[in-house]
Amino acid sequence: MQHNGGDLENMTAKLLEKHITDTIREWQVKIGYEGGTMKLYYPAESLRRSLSLDETEDLDAALAAFCKEVQPRLGTLAISAVKDRYCMEIPEEGCSYIERKIPIPELLQNLLQVITTPGNTMEQVRNCFSSYAEKMHTTVEENASEEHEMGHVFSFSDPSVDEYCYCVEENEFGLTYHRFSREDYEAL
């Protein structure tokens, strides 16, 4: 694939930008936001998937092009790498843009309400996903993830409704979850 600013590059840049904005918005909802920068860490292979790069293509060059593409919205990103682990620091202006411009997804708001309510169980999580699936005219898929020790994995049969896999665990401390892109979950 050529990285010459064409439509395919812009489309793949949008995938990574959406993952960044979704993750930061999720954190802002979970822990609040009072200004400042945020750092996201990505394995190189995850960035390659997000940017549709194969092993022969220059990840650093693609990330430089990505930073240029998102700069008007997210500000000047600072990217550093240690071996195959990349840190993307989103400046305060980018985090503020996300807080102002990216709405809180209804599913995320509902799921966080369920997860943070003491005494709730996997049954309430299941109901949260089922209710949202019904409202969005799709179905929810649930799988027990024994091989990855990720608890119950929820996703929607129509990825346009929500493209993530939610791995929910229940233990003596309550409910916790992790959210992955489908591609990253499948690569675990």
Topology (elements, then pairings):
Blueprint: H1 7-31, E1 38-43, H2 44-50, H3 59-74, E2 78-82, E3 85-90, H4 92-101, H5 106-116, H6 122-135, E4 140-145, E5 151-156, E6 164-171, E7 174-181, H7 182-186
Antiparallel strand pairs: 1-3, 2-3, 4-5, 5-6, 6-7
Helix pairs in contact: 5-6
Mean pLDDT: 91
* Biggest beta-sheet profile: 4 strands, antiparallel
Shape: globular
What series of H and E elements makes up the topology? HEHHEEHHHEEEEH
The SS-based structural class is alpha+beta
CATH top level label of the largest domain: Mainly Alpha
Q: Supply the number of structural domains.
A: 2
Q: How is this structure best described in words?
A:
With 188 residues, the chain is of the alpha+beta class. It is 47% helix and 24% strand. It folds into 2 domains: 7-101, Arc Repressor Mutant, subunit A (Orthogonal Bundle); 106-186, no CATH class. A 4-stranded antiparallel sheet has the order 4-5-6-7. Strands 1-3-2 form a 3-stranded antiparallel sheet. Helix 5 runs antiparallel to helix 6 (122-135). The longest helix is centred in the first third of the chain and has 25 residues, at 7-31. The two termini are 25 Å apart.
Short description:
With 188 residues, the chain is an alpha+beta fold.
List keywords for this structure.
single chain, alpha+beta, Arc Repressor Mutant, subunit A, three-stranded antiparallel β-sheet, 7 helices, globular
